[in-house]
């Protein structure tokens, strides 16, 4: 499992074949990180660094312990172009917390890049109301030079009122980059957002969101966009993506998995997307969800993905997961990343 992205001089393929790539300049490269942080609060409190302190002394070869600081995260990972955070758990009316996050990503050292934070938080009057509405929610953190150079539009989608999907779109190049916290299918009721009437279960809602996502992505592709979906999909795709075993009960989880794979990977009428981790690493195992109640690595799943349109396949430079306890921090997920050369043409290099 990758800990941090290696130098971007070659694009590694899953079958161990290598192809040279040439970056004309840094502006042609975009790096996207995604992380379900399971709550933003630790990242705007100074005292939270205790979460990351190792009880054992670090060897000279050990990594520097991570800290619950968004600036430190961005610095440690080479100033990603976009950082997609899921499950930020911010009340939509909590302007103080949103302001604190914006302050936390601002540059505080000369020569370091600046960032903007954008939020999509739950507004559904009948769903996503627990815990004082501090549930779900995504935050997309964008480096300001990307904003200056490409003038992206940041938007939500009309079919999501739970704060689960935020989209960053640029015209040159034509990219649509999604920050996703997908529905976790359960037997709990899902209510109509307008009437409050129960219209199914959260499993039903998960399948409906899959359909909405596919339709939106296909529409964007028809308009010439390359689509990148990044986030917690709440789906482990195959046996390779669960340890020690892939979850197979209740039966509805198998149905949800099959539906996701069909719509986004397998069906001719689907998205036919590229799983960036599998594209780079083939069948190598790598996981993103590490529950805190168990020893790290004893039970884990790859439920966070960065997938993209087939038109972007030759533009993928690297992908991986940052699978260490220190990178997990106060969350129960570790970050993942994918890097693209948006300056390449479609010729094989």
Automatic annotation (TrEMBL):
<feature type="site" description="Interaction with DNA substrate">
    <location>
        <position position="333"/>
    </location>
</feature>
<dbReference type="InterPro" id="IPR001680">
    <property type="entry name" value="WD40_rpt"/>
</dbReference>
<keyword id="KW-0479">Metal-binding</keyword>
<feature type="binding site">
    <location>
        <position position="87"/>
    </location>
    <ligand>
        <name>Mg(2+)</name>
    </ligand>
</feature>
<feature type="site" description="Important for catalytic activity">
    <location>
        <position position="304"/>
    </location>
</feature>
<feature type="binding site">
    <location>
        <position position="332"/>
    </location>
    <ligand>
        <name>Mg(2+)</name>
    </ligand>
</feature>
<keyword id="KW-0464">Manganese</keyword>
<feature type="binding site">
    <location>
        <position position="234"/>
    </location>
    <ligand>
        <name>Mg(2+)</name>
    </ligand>
</feature>
<keyword id="KW-0378">Hydrolase</keyword>
<dbReference type="GO" id="GO:0005634">
    <property type="term" value="C:nucleus"/>
</dbReference>
<feature type="site" description="Transition state stabilizer">
    <location>
        <position position="234"/>
    </location>
</feature>
<dbReference type="InterPro" id="IPR004808">
    <property type="entry name" value="AP_endonuc_1"/>
</dbReference>
<feature type="active site" description="Proton donor/acceptor">
    <location>
        <position position="232"/>
    </location>
</feature>
<dbReference type="GO" id="GO:0006284">
    <property type="term" value="P:base-excision repair"/>
</dbReference>
<dbReference type="GO" id="GO:0008311">
    <property type="term" value="F:double-stranded DNA 3'-5' DNA exonuclease activity"/>
</dbReference>
<feature type="repeat" description="WD">
    <location>
        <begin position="147"/>
        <end position="180"/>
    </location>
</feature>
<dbReference type="GO" id="GO:0008081">
    <property type="term" value="F:phosphoric diester hydrolase activity"/>
</dbReference>
<feature type="domain" description="Endonuclease/exonuclease/phosphatase">
    <location>
        <begin position="34"/>
        <end position="333"/>
    </location>
</feature>
<dbReference type="InterPro" id="IPR036691">
    <property type="entry name" value="Endo/exonu/phosph_ase_sf"/>
</dbReference>
<feature type="region of interest" description="Disordered">
    <location>
        <begin position="1"/>
        <end position="23"/>
    </location>
</feature>
<feature type="binding site">
    <location>
        <position position="232"/>
    </location>
    <ligand>
        <name>Mg(2+)</name>
    </ligand>
</feature>
<feature type="binding site">
    <location>
        <position position="333"/>
    </location>
    <ligand>
        <name>Mg(2+)</name>
    </ligand>
</feature>
<feature type="active site">
    <location>
        <position position="181"/>
    </location>
</feature>
<protein>
    <submittedName>
        <fullName>DNase I-like protein</fullName>
    </submittedName>
</protein>
<dbReference type="GO" id="GO:0003906">
    <property type="term" value="F:DNA-(apurinic or apyrimidinic site) endonuclease activity"/>
</dbReference>
<keyword id="KW-0460">Magnesium</keyword>
<comment type="similarity">
    <text>Belongs to the DNA repair enzymes AP/ExoA family.</text>
</comment>
<dbReference type="InterPro" id="IPR005135">
    <property type="entry name" value="Endo/exonuclease/phosphatase"/>
</dbReference>
<dbReference type="GO" id="GO:0046872">
    <property type="term" value="F:metal ion binding"/>
</dbReference>
<feature type="binding site">
    <location>
        <position position="36"/>
    </location>
    <ligand>
        <name>Mg(2+)</name>
    </ligand>
</feature>
<feature type="active site" description="Proton acceptor">
    <location>
        <position position="333"/>
    </location>
</feature>
<dbReference type="Pfam" id="PF03372">
    <property type="entry name" value="Exo_endo_phos"/>
</dbReference>
<keyword id="KW-0853">WD repeat</keyword>
């Amino acid at each position: 499992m990758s800990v941090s992205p290696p130098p971007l001089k070659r694009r590694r393929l899953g079958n161990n074949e290598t192809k040279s790539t040439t970056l004309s300049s840094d502006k042609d490269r975009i790096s996207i990180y995604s992380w379900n942080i399971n709550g933003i609060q630790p990242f705007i409190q100074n005292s939270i660094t205790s979460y990351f302190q190792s009880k054992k002394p670090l060897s000279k070869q050990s990594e520097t312990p991570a800290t619950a600081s968004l600036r430190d995260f961005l610095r440690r990972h080479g100033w990603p172009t976009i950082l997609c955070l899921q499950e930020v758990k911010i009340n939509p009316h909590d302007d103080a917390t949103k302001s604190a996050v914006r302050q936390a990503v601002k540059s505080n050292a000369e020569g370091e890049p600046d960032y903007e934070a954008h939020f999509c938080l739950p507004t559904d009057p009948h769903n996503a109301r627990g815990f004082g509405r501090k549930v779900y929610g995504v935050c997309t953190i964008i480096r300001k030079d990307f904003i200056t150079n490409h003038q992206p539009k940041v938007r939500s989608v009309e079919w999501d009122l739970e704060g689960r999907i935020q989209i960053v779109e640029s015209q040159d190049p034509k990219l649509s980059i999604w920050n996703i916290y997908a529905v976790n299918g359960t037997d709990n009721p899902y209510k109509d957002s307008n009437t409050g009437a129960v219209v199914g279960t959260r499993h039903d809602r998960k399948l409906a969101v899959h359909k909405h996502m596919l339709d939106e992505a296909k529409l964007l592709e028809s308009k010439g966009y390359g689509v990148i979906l990044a986030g917690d999909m709440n789906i482990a795709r195959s046996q390779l993506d669960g340890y020690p075993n892939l979850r197979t009960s209740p039966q509805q989880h198998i149905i949800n998995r099959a539906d996701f794979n069909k719509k986004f990977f397998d069906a001719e009428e689907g998205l036919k997307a590229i799983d960036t981790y599998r594209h780079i690493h083939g069948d190598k195992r790598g996981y993103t969800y590490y529950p805190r109640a168990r020893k790290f690595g004893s039970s884990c799943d790859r439920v966070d993905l960065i997938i993209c349109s087939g038109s972007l396949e030759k533009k993928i430079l690297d992908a991986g997961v940052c699978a260490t306890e220190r990178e997990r921090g106060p969350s129960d997920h570790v970050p993942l990343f994918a890097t693209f050369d948006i300056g390449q043409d479609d010729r094989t290099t």
